[in-house]
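Structure, all three chains, one model.
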Amino acid sequence: MPDRTRVRAIINHEPVDFLCEPRQSLLDCLRDVLGLTGTKCGCNDGNCGACSVLLDGRLVNSCLVLGVEIEGRSVVTVEGLAQWPGARIIQESFVEQDALQCGFCTPGMLIASKALLDRSPRPSEDAIRAWMSGNLCRCTGYERLVRAVQAAADHLATIEGAE
Amino acid sequence: MQAFSYRAPTTLEDAVSILAAAGPAARPLAGGTDLIVQLRHGRRRVDMVIDIKRIREVGALEFTPEGGLVLGAAVPCADVATHADVITHYPALADGAGLIGGAAVRQRATVGGNLCNASPSGDAIPPLIVLGAECRIVGPDGERRAPAAEFCTGPGSTILAPGELVVSLHLPPPQPNTGSCYLRFTPRAEMDIAVVGVAAWVQLDPGDGRIVDARLALGAVGPTPIVAEHAARAVIGLCANEDACAQAEALAIESVNPIDDVRGTEAQRRHVAGVLTRRALRGAIQRAKGESLDA
Amino acid sequence: MATTKTPPKTFAVIGTTPPRVDAGAKVTGAAVYGIDVMLPRMAYGRILRSPHAHARIVRIDTSRAEALPGVVAVATAADLPEAVDRTDRVGEGTVNYRYTRDATFAGDKVLYHGHPICAVAAVTPEAAEDALALIDVEYEPLEPVLDVRGAMEPDAPILHPDLRTRSLAGPGSTPTNVAAHMRFEIGDPDQGMAEADVVVEREFQTATVHQGYMEPHAATAAWSPEGILTIYTTTQGAFDVRTRVHELLHHPLADIRVVPTEVGGAFGGKNTGYTDVAAALLARKAERPVRVVMSREETLMATGPTSGTWMRVTVGARRDGRITAAKAELRYEAGAYPGAPVFSGANCMFASYDIPNGRIDCYDVVVNKPRTGDYRSPGATQSAFAAETVLDEVATCLGMDPIAFRLINCACDGTSRITGGAHEHIGIRQVLEATRDCAHYRAPRPKSDGYLRRGRGVALGFWGNWGARSSVTLSVAEDGTVSLLTGSVDITGTRTSLAMQAAEALGLPLEMLAPAMGDTQTTGHSDSSGGSRTTMATGIAVCRAAEDLLARMEERAAAWWGVDSATVEYARGVFTSSTTGDAMSWAEVAGHQSETGGAIRGHGDVNVRKWGAAYATHIVDVEVDVETGGVRLLRHTVVQDVGRAIHPGQVASQMQGGATQGIGWALYEGYAYDAQGRMLNPNLLDYKMPTYLDVPAIETILVEVPYPGHPYGVRGVGEAPIVAVPAAIAAAIHDAVGVRTTRLPMGATQILQLLGVIDP
């Protein structure tokens, strides 16, 4: 058996400590080693976004990050979104707008949406489409996803305005 | 993919000595968006991956009007494409870096990596060439500099000797009345590899509007990005107008050496190389005049 | 924006847009798809695949793989019992289990790049991958044939030496790649052409394309010591998986339990499985559960894309717009084994029109590519591309508006089809009129600007839909809540639409329904979810189950009161005795169940043999960059007859999704091969599916012409929205730049060639 490396990182705001081979991607580690199967593998080469996670707050394809690269870093997956106050709003927005059918791309879409709203709280339709063009959906035709992100942005803005 | 070992040095000296000792079966890792895919698809085999992202110098992104731009080899494309000074003074580089992959890929992919991967269609390479970028290279025998225009020697091949790696890219201080632009053709709006990519840079005479200097580089139409010197020289001295752009188009078509592959045909690439040369030169001219590009 | 045009009728639940019942798990990452299944001691399986498109297998040596530490099993063709030569209807096509066995592990020949050879299981996915590299296979490469016309040449390489052409004239006598030839004919097509004032003939080619579901195939198999095999898998039809495993392993049906997981997209491509038998074999040999997951590369290379084709279409019409005759020759690639959807392509291509004279010749042809699978209206999109493009050209020649031309010729109830049968209860005229009258069609045509030429096109598509077998059980718990168990796998949100139909039928609020998918042990036989049948046919089963349940509940209320059940009435959650005037709520009757006879359940098992067809038009505005050949979509509207929209949001979403797949098929997608038959683009970089930036906000107009055969008028909606998209885009390109694109995908090179900018 090839040698394994010890990795210590923060995943979904909790410390983790695991072993992996250098060739195992962050996606492999999340799913096979840590049992966090919410992040999906759609293509394994950075072309579909189903494996999207936040790495130190940046939107990345976890299939293109090695597990050993997250030493000392912080990762947020769809399972960790609940700790973001806006999570429920965006999740409900997806449901209300019928922005999912099979749901396989949904975790990646949610992560990408959070990354977008973190930097751009009132994105235009063009900005949403451009930001999320790396997340493929085969079921919905994207229009309802755009509406869901816009509705979430509007809702979050009213909450922030109220504070 | 086959198993490999992983090292993450924190200094340039350590990186160079590990790389030199490990031999040809070791590869530096920056963003990983090319390397990991190649390893996974069996297009490249390595025994060791050397993660350079912990080294201070490769993360630099600094601009001064006198010194120009220092761009560390491992700075993510997203940071380059959105940097105000890059957008203002080196817009072709912002164009190219902003087209690689999609938003998530750009948070990891790097301009340095795009150059070192030396794909004929790398979107950052033609901009680096026309902007006169230089590479700072370190290796077992010390440090050297080389122009980006000479860096790629074939598909996947570069001038790097065993044990060498690129630390940073250095773009000269911006001159007045200059503009640059990178355009590419892809079937889909994003997420695609360029079928043709063209970067243009011009310097205009502020008085009579003539082209004082010009550079053109074309990607995905030859085994390396092509520096279209003949086409660029032909527009020097001309009025910066559509005729000049059309002249450049005609000469660019003759300068390219495209192939048929799954992404495009030779005839298509040759024709579109001309079209994009005309449009990229027009864009560079507009930016040199301080105008924004046509929609 | 979804607009619904509905005849008036008041429903309590149907027509509303409640949140989907499965949405919560899907927005939190908790939903378990086929690739997510984890069992204790589970090992990981991988399949070794042929690097050649056509080759004889000389020798296989797995000894080095078996010796690798961590490998727990190796399975080969020797582990499969002898094949049974039996054909079955599966999904929207047919299957011969002899070929299924050959597709599971190759026999003496490999027939496509990616053809499975054998499989290994190991304790980690990495060890399984390492083990694959240690399997030695010696091949004798043979010349491949990759296109349908080449395969029909007399000197073409032959895939199956025993294959003879099936046709009405009886089986052929010489080895061939033509599995079947069928001719459909009505009237006198040659005479009809002679009477035409305008005749247009064109030839077409379409590339192989894939359904493109985001979740790859996966199956996890586990054997109990007594020989009960459980398979968790992403599939459209758990019973079809069970049958396949039974046919290949010769294991009793009831000892095979197939549990469908959540499905990450299917579109017909998961009517067949590609991992279940291998997982079962590995698990049996390893004596531990084994999960086999396909990579994206394997999914594109070696599952069931839909046919690449060559077609010729000829249409003749009089100056007044009446079509006098239509002829077509359809040659569809079946892939490595017979069964291309060419007959359904023939069935659909002119089905929208009243054509008195017609002839369609269909050829089902094997080539060295993976065997085709169902893809959303199987076969129809290809033939519609050809037929609708020629019809658009006829309309242009006659100087007629394309919708007006179609209205002159459109079919109605009773119109006979060239392929036989007559239409019943169709909504085509209403769809065409709604298209003509909609905002998009009436808006001024987009203006061109320099090298950006803009235009508009429209096309009409037909899909017949499907009925078949479904099974539903409704059970009432003591608090009155109702569980709905269906054998129909939910691939599109049907759990919700079925629950809505049950709630409507039972007069209860939707919140009291708890739907669930069953497995092959717990539900009655259900054909696969596909063919646009689930909301319709399983909906009928739901209504039958609801009727059955209401009868049982009325009996229980009667028993409680000691009256005749004929005197019990029910409405909106309340039972009343017409003799005593007593009343009891639904929950109260439910609460008394143990005293009145025990569990209360209603069943509906149906085999629906008549169902409503669907029509959909697409209006597309495009922009063509005449210097680069690039095409961009500016605006897109889908108009479809949906019968009755149970959940209008879900229906509109189906229309948008089908339209988006059609856009990919039209402009970007297509399999590319090298001269040796190896697929060049088995990845999502070079097999280009539309992104957010490649499709506009697709507008949807739902026309409701209720289908009388369903209690609420439901027609299937899932498939029709893909059919006419490539033709509509081609028509728009013609309107913009005056050329007819006849090859799919309609990429920049083809457009530049047609414009004369580059040489062909």
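The longest strand of chain C covers residues 323-335.
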